[in-house]
Write a structure and sequence with these properties.
The chain has 160 residues and is mainly α. The chain has helices at residues 11-17, 45-52, 55-64, 70-75, 88-100, 104-119, 122-137, 140-150; strands at 2-4, 7-9, 22-25, 29-31, 68-69, 81-83.
Length: 160
């Protein structure tokens, strides 16, 4: 997860691209300016950007080295939310709190499934879901979630 304030260029955007959730202040700017200095985004930026935003938009950013502002980054799906500067950390903390309230095992399995779906065929990803489903069904969290719901209390997750 990232909370972006200011300029995230080059390695800064590559860090953003490695995150699952990104919140940015309204004045943040980001991009991969490497071509402007005779380099290329070789630490993951060229690969990850084209997987996370539409291809033509990624190529425009990668080939020009231009930075985009936070509202544009949100519009193209590069970041999750744009907020006023004074709300940045509170909003980022809110995202983290909402994730933490979930079963850690469910969050882990969800991330595994999403990443598999990006790199495997759908059929292969579904096949790998069988093992994930078995892990979930054998877990304490699988029992705890519905039990806590029925008892109208917060679940006590163990991640096992």
């Amino acid at each position: 997860m990232a909370a972006v304030n200011g300029v995230a260029a080059g390695g800064g955007l590559e860090l953003i691209l490695a995150c699952d959730i990104v919140v940015a202040s309204e004045h943040a700017r980001m991009g991969l300016p490497e071509p402007k200095v005779g380099l290329f985004a070789g630490a993951g930026g060229a690969h990850r950007l084209a997987r996370q935003v539409p291809f033509k938009l990624a190529m425009g950013m990668l080939l020009t080295g231009d930075l985009i502002d936070a509202p544009e980054a949100h519009r193209i799906g590069l970041i999750n939310e744009v907020v006023p500067h004074d709300e940045l950390m509170t909003t980022a903390q809110s995202w983290a709190d909402r994730i933490i309230r979930c079963s850690p095992l469910s969050v882990q399995l969800t991330k595994e499934a999403v990443f598999d779906a990006q790199f495997l065929s759908i059929d292969d990803a579904f096949r790998k879901d069988n093992g994930r489903r078995d892990r979930l069904l054998a877990s304490h969290d699988f029992v705890e979630g519905p039990k806590a719901f029925a008892e109208k209390r917060q679940p006590r997750w163990t991640g096992r």
